[in-house]
Structures are given as structure tokens and as C-alpha cells.
Amino acid sequence: MSKLPAVLVIDVQQSFLHAPYWREDDVPAFRENLLKLLDAAAARGWPIVRILHEDNDAHFSAASGLVRPMAWVPEAHDVVFHKHVHNAFTDTGLQTWLRERGIDRVIVSGIRSEQCCETTARVASDLGFSVDYVTEATLTFPMIHAGSGTRYDAQDIKQRTELVLDGRFARICTVDDVLADH
After folding, report:
1. Which residues form the Isochorismatase-like domain (predicted)?
2. DSSP, res 72
3. Structural domain of residue 112, as residue ranges?
4. What CATH number is associated with residue 148?
5. CA-based nearest residue to 137, from 30, 9, 6, 10
6. I want to staple 47 with a disulfide (CB 3.0 to 4.6 A). Which of 6, 100, 114, 153 is the partner?
7. Hey, what's the torsion of the CAs at 167, 168, 169, 174, to 10 degrees?
8. β pairing state of 151-152 and 143-144
9. What is the total count of domains within the chain?
10. Are the CB atoms for 117 and 10 separated by under 8 Å?
11. Which of 53, 45, 41 lies closest to 7 in space, CA to CA?
12. Which contacts of 163-171 are long-range, i.e. CB under 8 A and separated by 24 or more positions?
């Protein structure tokens, strides 16, 4: 097997800029961490996999013209997959692409921490991949629980995501952890 991991950049796309829940407050730290990860991956020759979400929602439809990377995302990538469900494996060919290259470890980054990033980490683990979940290179937004009305901020959601993934589906790590290990 390849000793190189692949970096999955999930749904870092312009569609989100038009979502009613979009907030800028956590974007600067997310951008800094993701760019650090991507710059190091490119320098080390790690495959960078761009994944874009496409569905029938107005801003996520192909016709919207918004299913493209955010302007600050580097052009460099090895392959692009378009997904139509929450995880990056089900309908994309990603698993085959990784297996054909002997890649058995994925590094998960992107938007939203508890949705497409978490779901991708779980499926990757179930498919036999080792998973590094780099929380600081993921982004999410506050949510309100429909039943109780409790508001959860982005950090609460990220912490919960780490809780349910750690040691079961993924290794929770920072960008520096990933770079030190590979």
C-alpha cells in the first residue's frame, strides 16, 4: 500500500456563501488551517481530492453556477468528484480512485464538520481506510435543535463530532499532527 495519504477537501464551494446560515466568524481560522494543510500536501506530493456537492437545492444545483471552489482555494488538485449525498464515497468513484493508487489513509477537511465531513469519515472507516479527521480544517455553523430549541454553537458541534468519531471511525488531529506523522 501507498504510504501517501490523500487529502479530501469536501464541499469548500461557493454554494455555501449563499446559504441562510453562512457566517464569516470562523472562516479566517478555517481558511488558514486548510491552506496550511493543502500547501504542505502539495509540497509533499500527497494527492489532493476536491469534492463538490451538487443537488436540487437552489445554490447547490449545477445550474446555479455556484458548485465550484471558493475563490481562495488553491487550483492544485489531483481529481474532482461531484457527490449527490452527504458522504464522498457513495456515488462518486472515490473509493476506486483511491484503491487504484494504493491509498489506504485519508485526511478529512472541508464544510460542514458534522455533516459531509463526519459522514465521509464514517464511511471511509467502514470501507477500511485509516482516517485522520482534522477538525480545525473543517467548518460548520450554529444550529438550533428543533425539539428543545437549544442552540449549539459551531464549537459545540465540532466537539460532539470529535467525540463520536475519535477512536471509532477516525483519529482526531490538528494540521500539525498530520504533518508530523507523514
Report:
1. 6-141
2. T
3. 6-181
4. 3.40.50.850
5. 30
6. 6
7. -20
8. antiparallel
9. 1
10. yes
11. 41
12. 164/118, 165/118, 165/121, 165/122, 165/131, 165/133, 168/125, 169/121, 169/122, 169/124, 169/125, 169/126, 169/131, 169/133, 170/108, 170/121, 170/125, 170/131, 170/132, 170/133, 171/130, 171/131, 171/132, 171/133
**What does the pLDDT look like over 47-56, one tens digit per residue?**
999 999 999 9
Residue 87 counted as domain residue = yes
Q: Is residue 12 one of the residues assigned to a domain?
A: yes
What predicted TM-score, i.e. pTM, was given to this entire model? 0.96
The answer as to whether 1 is a domain residue is no
Task: Phi first, then psi: give them for residue 19, nearest 5 degrees.
Answer: -75, 145
Tally of residues, the chain: 182
Interval 85-122: pLDDT, tens: 999 999 999 999 999 999 999 999 999 999 999 999 99
